[in-house]
Input
Amino acid sequence: MARYITLISFTEQGIKTIKDWDKRVATTRERLDRVGGKLIDVYLTFGEFDAVAILDAPNDDAALRTALEYGLSGNGRSRTMRAFGQDEATRITKQLS
Output
């Protein structure tokens, strides 16, 4: 399973409904479960982004679907990056010539 990091910026709607945070996280967990993925953790943050989510998904299609469904909620905008753990990165870098 692939790991992804999602950076989230709340919209005005998202900040006005922040008291629903637990419900939003539960919805994201359900969305990921449906596509065979898993929400590892999610953090509220200071700075440029309002939240960061760490998730596993079986493939890019599943990760993209989850990100698009989040966008449809109107609560925020997200930027999702594929993340390579130490084992994956080591395997890849050992193939360099």
In short: The mean pLDDT is 96.
